[in-house]
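User: Run a structure prediction on this.
Assistant: Running it now.
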Amino acid sequence: MRRLTGVSVSHSVDCWPGMVRCQYRAARCVSIGACRSIRRHHNSDRPTRPGAGNAMSHRTGRCTGMPRRTTSSTSPAPRARRRRPTGEVILGVDTHRDTHVAAVLSPLGAVFGTEEFPASAAGYRGLLAWAGALGTVRRAGVEGTGSFGAALSRYLLTQGVEVFEVNRPDRTDRRLRGKSDPLDAQNAARAVLSGRARARAKSGDGPVQIARMYKLTKGSAVKARTQAINQLKAVLITADPALREELVGLNNPDLFRACARFADESKNEEGEEETVLQATRTTLRLLAHRIEQLTEQIQDVEHRLARLAERHVPQLLAVVGIGPDTAVTLLITMGDNPERLSSEASFAALCGVSPVERSSGTRQYRRLNRGGDRQANAALHRIVQTRLRVEPRTRDYFERRLKQGKTRREIVRCLKRYAAREVFHLVRRLVGRDEIRSAMAAYYERQVRGDRSPNLEKSGYVLHTTSDPDVFIAEIDTVFDGDGDDVVVSLVQIFRIRDGKIARLRDYFTPELMN
């Protein structure tokens, strides 16, 4: 055995059978070798590469049974050039008010890069261009698609990228790995890659987004008016008895009008001090004017919401228990792209009316769902309570379930689940009709035959339903302006709405069009 002192050894098995390659950074061979691979070099019974001579030279201490290629101790081994990623990549974005941090991962989870971009239109374009240079971006996980990431989500959706809503990272993982913006962006991409993030983001570019803006305005106005009414009545409790007796017995509208008619007594002559009674009357007058202004704003927004609901969801308003405010609330929950909801069960879970298992042992039990959108849950609750008062079918169901031993809370939960199913199918059909109408309008604009162009004012179409709730028939009459006579082209198209997507099944043309 021989031992190498002061020698750094690295060895690897060569392609030649029984041959071991050694590389030395220093070449001093002394007694007692400590490496089994080196001992194999000195074994003359082992075959060597033809023409290579002895494996080890005892005079120089250098390996001669190997190719004359050595690696310097100062220069590192050449590294393979990194190839440009190809194929699909996953985009993850951690959104903030001023900046967004993006990370791109491979389908196997390798991090290709992390970059920060400004939260602006130019920043959104730069983010997608940077991610597209690393591969094809088809899916993206974005944190806060309803707040800081709303504009980015809309841009990505317009570019054909499927956007998924990503919840905040798990607290256990955050304690173990730490917290930083690049890590949050990577976790967002990993959530999409693993399938944990399955909720697709709302598009926010249609009538539902308009309704959401009006609903937001109405909510803040109602809250401010309620606060002003409570303040006015609190002032009356501590007011002068004569003033309180003057206003006692009036209902709210009459009370507000009486307080608004109080004269402004705050401007007194010089030297006179304002009394408590004058300050009380002034406070009541100002609060009454504020209540009237807020009431006018609320009524204006309600009229706008009613027109919006009548224009886009008229069949939803025909259902018992659904008014404009309830219909708008449910539409906001579904979004402008209801195809993101794969089934009625997903919509029920989103509204918080899906049953949750709470069974143990021999007891089989389901409890109420305390999650989901509570505004939509409240809207479904109003529908059920209205039907329990005015609809005989719902009352009969309630009595029958009571005899079966169900509690009122369990029966209401079942009724809310049925209401969610009905609303889901109605909205899906209505959205499909609107998309078909848009497709018909685009069809008119594309129809150009020679020097003639379609006359959209004279053209029209009729949309018919069939026994299948997902199939529609469109009769289209396109009128083209002629030199003297108009040319009418008739077309019948059959559409099917499946999973929120439109499929054109067949076209029927008139003989005039085929000539």
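Residues 452 and 484 are 12 Å apart (CA to CA).
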